[in-house]
Design brief:
Blueprint (H helix, E strand, L loop, with lengths): L2 H13 L14 E2 L7 E2 L7 E2 L5 E2 L1 E5 L26 H13 L5 E5 L6 H19 L4 E5 L6 H10 L2 E3 L7 H7 L5 H21 L8 E7 L6 H15 L3 E6 L17 H16 L4 H6 L12 H8 L6 E2 L5 H4 L7 H10 L7 H7 L3 H4 L3 E3 L2 E2 L8 H5 L11
Length: 403
């Protein structure tokens, strides 16, 4: 690789690491065929492995880390002394194609700082996707970060070529956005998200292509004083209003020469993990924000126990649950039981009363669930024991955000 291009790649790949919203779930199954290049699967992209064992699937880069804005929490803010670089449209296209041919990637995640103007940046992002699709027949996954202040027409055109579009709400409250990113406008962000939702709905109704993998967003956690309960309420609202495919949570990471309004230390990385688990309970397990928050204290999730277990420990009167009689919604509240396991149990109990041996075949997490279950040959014992929490909860080890 040309040394100049390699230097750009090092800078702009490192600058993109703070964006967590790059999963490819929801992309339609597609193949480039004999004349095209690449493919996607309905289950998401395929992971590839480099010779040294690293899992690489998306080329995740910024078009540029030059930015007009001076957001306090962003390492690429206007006043930052970070090294700067900029790819041309042609360089991003070439890198994507060459990395794909080497089996390093199956798709592209492309974001950017706002250089020159929102429209100029959005137009370059659009050109990358359009060139890959139209000129090179690239059928792999493409995720573009849209610029909310850009022309609605440019965002709509980008949706014709990308699998997913996303716009970061940045922070969980409009007040925090005004404090930490005063040059950004919450109405412009939500307005662009609303426009995207309308276009996705229209495309589905008319059976035409527009961001078929939907839209997502990212929330920075720990840069302001918002509690976990506040973050989850914001997520609940975003899911309901804009029908997002995902909300991603990114733990705030201290940056060089930080603003005095930012926290000195990052939040525990376990907090990010607990928010993802709570998000899953909101979307797939029938929990409300109030119920999830009740498992913690003062609006913060329990860092030692996952949100479902934390709720169960504070609502022991709801247990044990009889796997042969309980409704689906109650089985979903048993720690250790996932959606698929519960559905298997409900299907199996129509034919016979379930015993422990049956449950062991239906779920790999039976050990975690046992204290909360009743089966034909088992009844949970000691649910009211004072040592139940100590037996079920192990203090987490603090992980580093980046190696």
């Amino acid at each position: 690789m040309d040394p100049r291009l390699a230097s750009k790649l090092r800078i702009l790949a490192d600058a993109a690491k703070y964006d967590a919203s790059c999963a490819s779930s929801g992309a339609p199954k597609r193949s480039g065929g004999a004349k095209g290049l690449g493919s996607t699967s309905g289950m998401g992209i395929c992971h590839a492995y480099t010779p040294d064992g690293r899992c690489v699937s998306l080329l995740k880069i910024l078009l540029t880390n030059w930015c007009l804005y001076d957001c306090a929490y962003c390492v690429n803010r206007r006043s930052s002394n970070t090294p700067r670089a900029r790819f041309s449209v042609e360089e991003v296209v070439s890198l994507t194609l060459e990395f794909y041919k080497r089996n390093y990637i199956e798709g592209l995640f492309l974001s950017s700082g706002v250089a020159k103007s929102p429209d100029a940046t959005m137009e370059d992002l659009l050109r990358v996707a359009r060139t890959l699709r139209r000129d090179h027949g690239f059928a792999g996954y493409i995720h573009l970060k849209a610029i909310p202040e850009a022309s609605p027409w440019l965002i709509e055109q980008a949706g014709r070529w990308a699998d997913r579009l996303s716009i970061n709400v940045e922070l969980p409250s409009e007040t925090s956005l005004k404090t930490l990113a005063p040059e950004k406008s919450a109405p412009s962000i939500t307005g662009a998200m609303d426009q995207m939702r309308e276009r996705i709905d229209e495309a589905k109704a008319e059976r035409r292509r527009f961001a078929p993998a939907g839209q997502s967003t990212q929330v920075i956690v720990g840069a302001d004083a918002t509690t976990d309960e506040g973050v989850l309420r914001a997520s609940k609202r975003l899911y309901g209003t804009y029908r997002l495919r995902r909300v991603y949570y990114s733990a705030f990471s201290p940056i060089p020469e930080p603003s005095a309004v930012l926290p000195v230390k990052p939040p525990p990385l376990q907090r990010e993990n607990r928010l993802y688990q709570a998000d899953w309970l909101l979307r797939f397990y029938g929990f409300s924000v109030d119920e999830i928050a009740a498992g913690g204290d003062a609006g913060m999730l329990d860092l030692e126990a996952d949100p479902k277990l934390a709720w169960a420990l504070k609502h022991r009167a709801s247990f044990p649950v009889d796997v042969n009689r309980a409704p689906r919604e109650m089985l979903l509240r048993v720690p250790g039981l996932g959606v698929k396991a519960v559905d298997r149990m409900i299907a199996a109990r129509r034919h016979a009363r379930l015993r422990l041996a049956d449950l062991a075949r239906l779920t790999p997490s039976l050990k975690r669930a046992l204290p909360f279950l009743v089966a034909a040959d088992h009844r949970a014992a000691g649910l009211d024991g004072l040592d139940l929490r100590s037996r079920l909860v192990k203090p987490p080890e603090q992980l580093a955000l980046f190696p």
